[in-house]
Amino acid sequence: MIEAHALRKEFTVRVRAGRLRRHKRVVTAVDGVDLRVERGEMLGYIGPNGAGKSTTLKMLTGVLTPTAGQVRVCGLEPVARRTRLALGIGVVFGQRSQLWWDLPLRDSFDLLRHIYRVPAAAHATRLRRCRDLLDLDAFLDTPVRQLSLGQRMRGELTAALLHGPQVLFLDEPTIGLDVVSRQAVRGFLAELGRTGDTTLVLTTHDLADIERLCRRLVVIDHGRVVHDGSIAALHSRYGSRRLVVAELDVVLPEPPTLPGAPLQRVEADGHRLVYALESAGVAEVVAQLAGLATLRDISIVEPDIEDVVARLYRTPHPV
Ligand SMILES: Nc1ncnc2c1ncn2[C@@H]1O[C@H](COP(=O)(O)OP(=O)(O)OP(=O)(O)O)[C@@H](O)[C@H]1O
């Protein structure tokens, strides 16, 4: 659905160099990105501020012309075939609206049906589904300007999907949403992913979105791809380890040393021991601890995606 090769975008900016003088400076926002996304994939596209995520999305959707490289979305060259491409893609930019500010949500949806020339029956089916899954009914007749951010975002998602796009681009779809709206949006996107018809490209700073929705993660930094693979692959690349947390009834004179599971921390005055799973398996570690101490509780803590991504952002990457 998406193919990009050596995609590059440079911006020329003017910077002050004295009271009246200005210098031209070239900012390379995207620096040779290769990307291939198959039908039905849900791809998380993340990176620190200014990494080039929005610029990439703008090139994929035909808003910006690449400085160099090739790009095809739904088999089309985005800038040259922008009108045609609009029928195949849906776009949600969290900070911008595609709805009519003064119209009730229902009327915006109706206008979109005419703009995209969607047959009435197909429109009704898709709208019904969004109304059910996103709980739109309570505010369908409210003008967009009176909607809360969470309600508007649900409206935006519906608006992006009513013409049945093959690819959905989402730039920060959960930004600023409260917990309930965030869950509603995530649940809806997860459902969309399960049906497997829509390809989804999602940029976000909220890594819980990625964990919940995306099996594949592309990380971009300074305009370059620095990771392309699963979240699990990222953890193994950066040596993230699962932890075994043992709560003891009685404090031991010395925390036990376990082969293949180094002790990470001793907490709660010795009542809690935290081991990292290296070469040892969970069962082995639990069995050993059970033989050495009276356990009140034991839990396994999965590696934290925030930690591993923070480590990745801090790692310098070769230019
Ligand atoms: N229109 C523009 N003119 C000049 N520079 C730009 C323009 N748009 C983006 N840039 C620069 O390109 C770089 C990448 O910006 P981009 O908006 O793609 O980053 P991002 O990864 O989406 O960041 P964020 O997470 O902060 O939204 C930044 O250095 C930014 O200042």
Automatic annotation (TrEMBL):
Gene Ontology terms for molecular function: ATP binding; ATP hydrolysis activity
PANTHER family named among the record's database cross-references: ABC TRANSPORTER ATP-BINDING PROTEIN, ABC-TRANSPORT PROTEIN, ATP-BINDING COMPONENT
UniProt-annotated location(s): Cell membrane
Gene Ontology biological process: response to antibiotic
Species of origin: Micromonospora pallida
Recorded superkingdom: Bacteria
Keyword DNA damage: no
GO cellular component, as recorded: plasma membrane
Cross-referenced SUPFAM superfamilies: P-loop containing nucleoside triphosphate hydrolases (SSF52540)
Keyword vocabulary terms for this entry: Antibiotic resistance, ATP-binding, Nucleotide-binding, Transport
Membrane topology: Peripheral membrane protein
Alphabetical list of Pfam families matching this protein: ABC_tran (PF00005)
Signal peptide: none
Keyword ATP-binding: yes
Residue ranges occupied by any ABC transporter domain in the UniProt entry: 15-247
Protein name: ABC-2 type transport system ATP-binding protein
